[in-house]
Structure formats: structure tokens, C-alpha cells
Design brief:
The protein is an all-alpha fold and about 100 residues long. The protein has three helices and no strands.
Length: about 100
């Protein structure tokens, strides 16, 4: 496979990945008007609830991040393995 074709395949794969990621939904901290109205009608207003605008999700000690750490470490290890395999396969080239 020529170098030009390999570069073209890499660019095509990168473009395809970016196009696919374009459709991943974003996590906006907005609340629909009907949900806000239902919340106001259901419970009396507390001092913390007087803020207007979008509110972020509560994060605290109840969030378990262990699966994310294990998954991230595994993917990092796989990526490092691919890089090491590629360097080993290509062989050492003298620096010019």
C-alpha cells in the first residue's frame, strides 16, 4: 500500500469519526418550561430554589466513578499497546 493511499485512508477515517461525533447529543443544563412549572407547583420554594436559569446536576459522594476509571485505563493501555506494536513492526529507522 502506497504512502499516499495510507494517508488518504487515515484522513477518511478521521473525517468519518468527526462526522459521527457531530450527532452525539450535548449535555445542556436547561429545563423545559413545563417541568419547571410542575416543580414550582409541587413543592414550596426553598432558599436554594430561588435561582433562575439552568441548574446543573448534583454531584456528590454518591457518584461511583470506578467504571469510568477502569474503562479509561483499559482504553489507554490498548492505545499504548497499538503504538508499541506499530513502532516495533515498522522497525528502527536511523535519524537523519
Amino acid at each position: 500500500m502506497s504512502v499516499t493511499r495510507r494517508t488518504l485512508l487515515t484522513a477518511t477515517a478521521s473525517g468519518t469519526l468527526l462526522a459521527a461525533l457531530w450527532f452525539v447529543p450535548s449535555a445542556n443544563a436547561t429545563v423545559e418550561a413545563t417541568a419547571q412549572q410542575a416543580d414550582r407547583d409541587a413543592a414550596p420554594a426553598a432558599a436554594e430554589d430561588t435561582a433562575t436559569g439552568p441548574q446543573l446536576a448534583e454531584t456528590g459522594p454518591g457518584v461511583d466513578t470506578t467504571p469510568y476509571l477502569i474503562g479509561g485505563t483499559a482504553l489507554l493501555g490498548i492505545g499504548a499497546g497499538f503504538v508499541a506494536y506499530s513502532v516495533r513492526r515498522s522497525g528502527a529507522r536511523p535519524v537523519v
